[in-house]
Design goal:
The chain contains 22 helices and 13 strands. The chain is an alpha+beta fold. A seven-stranded mixed sheet has the order 3-4-5-2-1-8-9. It has a two-stranded antiparallel ribbon with strand order 6-7. Strands 10-11 form a two-stranded parallel sheet. The longest helix is centred in the C-terminal third of the chain and has 21 residues.
């Protein structure tokens, strides 16, 4: 296993001081799978104060002293170092009532969630794998350490972590582990919105979610109950080949980008379809579902404590996802005005993912419209075409000079902007002045 030089240096200095120290958890799992670890965590027999004493010259932060954790800042990035520990009972299904340091590595590993995360490695000792994590990696199996109901009863967030790891690794979840995850899902109600939010966003960005989110859909619905009506909700229309929930998951998997806001918006983009469904002329219709979905999206993301910027972007994406791009440049200019320039590329990506999760019916035609929208948007940006009041060649003073006042001024400017975006007026002072004069005459009469 190739350990970064900065991490190896910490291991070496702690072992020279007489303390057993090993890489542990996800970095070991990912290395054994041939993946580049995102970060490196160490476990050690040293207490936090002993870690500090053994690493003179390095900056060490007290990030979790109660749990025996310090963070060492190195040229290669931060590295968490945690003392071997055992934990007392979890009476609230969130955190241990007490933590006791130990010199026994195996005891420390026994408190971890899944066998593939309960391995440790050091150059001196090699791989330490008391619970068969390496074999489970080879079998592509996710299995709880010890007794599954006990593991999930200790910290219910492990249930969501199981869903995430199943999606990220593409692993099957061992039967007893899966049964315990489903059985204990009500305990998620005791977990803070912030912790559930973070785990859900990691799951969305982890890889292809359809398999894991389908098998464990009742767990997902424990966090977002508004998704439950989408389960098995038929879409009797030529445009669709999946029920609403399967379509949603397929759309998320069809998105090739890594923007967490787009992935969250895709998870919620059709969430209001069951509420808006009407059967007419032999087919289902979902009129109004984007606006209704945008309202649900705002409620859900605020409940999960997403920040205002993230929430606003996701709400706009959900509201706009079903717009048919059939009106050329004027429509793109208007969309830039309403949703903002910065959101347009993500909106096109979302539309393509949505189309990819539909039936083949008119798929090429729909994709061609999105492609034309992208090209028109590129022209807007390259040529600086007017799509906001600030880009007009006239301002409020021009309206005042015509005798307009109060709300009439803004109405006149909006009139000019619409004229420019729809190609009825040229964006120069003389042409817009005359265009505004025509409106002023109508208002005054």
């Amino acid at each position: 296993m190739k350990i970064p030089e900065s991490v190896s240096a910490i291991i070496g200095r702690l072992e020279e001081a007489g303390f057993e120290t090993l890489a542990v958890g996800g970095c070991v799992r990912d290395s054994l799978m041939g993946r580049e670890p995102v970060d490196w965590d160490l476990c050690t027999s040293a207490r936090p104060e002993q870690v500090k004493a053994a690493l003179p010259g390095l900056r060490v932060l007290d990030t979790g002293l109660r749990h025996g954790t310090v963070t060492v800042l190195t040229a290669g990035g931060p590295c968490e170092v945690t003392t071997f520990r055992v934990e007392g009972p979890y009476t609230d299904s969130r955190r241990p009532d007490s933590v006791e340091f130990t010199g026994d590595l195996v005891l420390d590993l026994s408190r971890r969630d899944f066998t593939v995360n309960a391995m440790a490695f050091s150059p001196r000792r090699g791989l330490v794998d008391p619970f068969g994590g390496r074999a489970d990696l080879d079998r592509r199996l996710l299995r709880a350490v010890g007794d599954p109901p006990l593991r999930f009863g200790e910290d219910a967030l492990r249930i969501l972590r199981g869903v995430r790891f199943s999606a990220a690794l593409g692993f099957e979840v061992e039967a007893r582990t899966a049964a315990a995850m489903l059985e204990k899902r009500e305990l998620l109600d005791d977990i803070s919105a912030e912790r559930k939010r973070d785990e859900l966003l990691k799951a969305l960005q982890s890889g292809r979610i359809r398999g894991a989110f389908t098998r464990f859909r009742e767990i997902v619905a424990r966090v977002i109950p508004e998704l439950r009506p989408c389960f098995d909700a038929e879409q009797r229309t030529a445009h669709h080949c999946y029920d609403v929930y399967t379509h949603i998951l397929t759309a998320v998997d069809s998105y090739s980008g890594n923007d967490p806001c787009v992935r969250a918006a895709l998870l919620l983009h059709d969430i209001a379809k069951p509420l808006c469904r009407r059967y007419r002329n032999g087919a289902d219709h979902f009129k109004g579902h984007p606006a209704a979905g945008a309202k649900l999206t705002e409620d859900i993301l605020r409940r999960l404590r997403l920040d205002n910027g993230f929430t606003a972007r996701a709400v706009k994406l959900v509201r706009a996802h079903d717009i048919r791009l059939v009106h050329g440049m004027p429509q793109i200019l208007k969309m830039c005005c309403i949703f903002g320039d910065g959101l347009m590329p993500e909106l096109f990506d979302m539309m393509e993912a949505d189309i990819a999760a539909q039936s083949d019916y008119k798929r090429e035609e729909k994709l061609a419209l999105v492609d034309r929208g992208r090209k028109n948007y590129a022209l807007v940006m390259e040529n600086g075409l007017c799509r906001s009041l600030s880009g007009l060649a006239v301002d409020g003073e021009s309206a005042v000079a015509l005798g307009l006042k109060g709300r009439e001024i803004r109405a006149a400017l909006r009139h000019c902007l619409n004229g420019v975006m729809n190609g009825r007026a040229e964006n120069d002072p003389r042409a817009l002045g005359e265009y505004m004069r025509e409106l002023a005459v109508r208002i005054m009469n």
